[in-house]
Amino acid sequence: MSEQQVVLRAEDIVVQFGGLTAVADVSIELSAGRVTGLMGPNGAGKTTFFNAVSGHQELTSGRVVLGDRDVTRLSAHGRARLGIARTFQLGGLVDDLTAIENIALGLDHGSRMSGRFLRRRDTRRRAAEVLERFDLLSVASQMGSDLGAGLRRRVEVARAMAADAKVLMLDEPAAGLTVAERAELAAVLGDVAAGGTAVLVTEHASDFLFSVSDEIVVMNFGRELRRGTPEQIKSDKDVVAAYLG
Ligand SMILES: Nc1ncnc2c1ncn2[C@@H]1O[C@H](COP(=O)(O)OP(=O)(O)OP(=O)(O)O)[C@@H](O)[C@H]1O
């Protein structure tokens, strides 16, 4: 797409923990149809920044704007209802629910127990549609605990997208995946972006991040060190020195 529609702006984000400034004035714009990657060494402030955008971390200063609405004071739950969906580093599927029940939880933003409302035919039908969209119908009745890492991650993405997110945020999605599973996940993220969602990914696996991102922001010591296309970032000598080594 030529005209980029900005979906989310995080402006001048600062997060301090006591005397420690974990994020020192970082701004980012996420656009429909684009994947933005966030990378940097351990302790650079990536997770803190990420949590500040999703509402899981209170800001010291700065603001988060979704569309034209300032959501800075909304909880993570409130932001999720407006279309900011995320996955977590340690996953988030319920092991003793099936894939389709996990999706149904996503449809309901996890606010009700699954067993009761899954009986509602409408919810089951919508969950099946989500699975079909993500080519996961064949695992609909597998328990979360029985899914391999690659499928698990794809069901997590499907669940996050179940309620038609405007912004999808993924925290270390490639961790623990094989090369083939990473390639499958990269294709899924490409599809999500092509559908018009703005995607933000934080990831240590730099090859994966380079393969999925349109733009990458590199953080170091709580600040933005560099931003650019994967090609620009790969060959940037400061980034190589600070991180890629
Ligand atoms: N809840 C907290 N209380 C105090 N300090 C924190 C807290 N969370 C993070 N920090 C500190 O803030 C800094 C940034 O941490 P953060 O986890 O955001 O970095 P990161 O780039 O995500 O690192 P990693 O790649 O290891 O996950 C670190 O110095 C960390 O110790």
TrEMBL record:
Keywords: ATP-binding, Nucleotide-binding, Transport. One of its GO terms (molecular function) is ATP binding. It comes from the Bacteria. Residues 8-244 form the ABC transporter domain. SMART domains: AAA. Coiled coil: none annotated. This is ABC transporter ATP-binding protein. It comes from Leifsonella bigeumensis. The lineage of its organism: Bacteria, Bacillati, Actinomycetota, Actinomycetes, Micrococcales.
